[in-house]
């Protein structure tokens, strides 16, 4: 009798946890705008990385800028719209 009671509680807690995860995912989804990430590494024609280069992406609703890191890498999060 005690074992089945414990199983019931675990199942109830698992269901509650599942519900909370779905609820948080729904809230997070409804508040975010669709976007994409553009990333890469800037190199010379000799395959040497280039640091401190300003990368700019322009689009209808604005623009995003970032500097390349010491390893030449960059990452920009952009809205899902055409880039100029």
Task: Provide a quick synopsis of the model.
This protein has 84 residues and is of the alpha+beta class. The chain has two domains: 1-32; 34-84. The chain has one helix at residues 2-31; strands at 35-41, 54-59, 62-67, 73-79.
Label the structural class: alpha+beta
Assign a percent range to the helix content. Answer: 25-40%
The average pLDDT value, as a whole number, equals 74
Q: What is the number of strand segments?
A: 4
Biggest sheet: strands, sense, closure? 2 strands, antiparallel
Q: Element order, helices and strands?
A: HEEEE
Query: Oligomeric state of the chains?
Result: single chain
Strand content bin: 25-35%
Shape: elongated
The first-to-last residue Cα distance is 68 Å
Number of domains: 2
Can you describe what's shown?
It is a single chain. This protein has one helix spanning 2-31, and strands at 35-41, 54-59, 62-67, 73-79. The model is unreliable at 1-30 (pLDDT under 50). It folds into two domains: 1-32; 34-84. The protein contains one helix and four strands; from the N terminus they run αββββ. The chain has 84 residues and is α+β, with helices and mostly antiparallel strands. The termini are far apart. The longest helix is centred in the N-terminal third of the chain and has 30 residues, at 2-31. The strands form two sheets. It has a two-stranded antiparallel sheet. A two-stranded antiparallel ribbon has the order 2-3.
């Amino acid at each position: 009798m005690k074992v089945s009671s414990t199983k019931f509680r675990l199942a109830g807690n698992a269901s509650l946890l599942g519900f909370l995860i779905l609820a948080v995912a729904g809230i997070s989804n409804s508040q975010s705008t669709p976007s994409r990430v553009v990333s890469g590494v800037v190199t010379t024609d000799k395959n040497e990385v280039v640091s401190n280069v300003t990368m700019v992406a322009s689009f209808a609703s604005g623009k995003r800028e970032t500097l390349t890191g010491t390893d030449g890498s960059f990452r920009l999060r952009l809205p899902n719209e055409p880039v100029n």
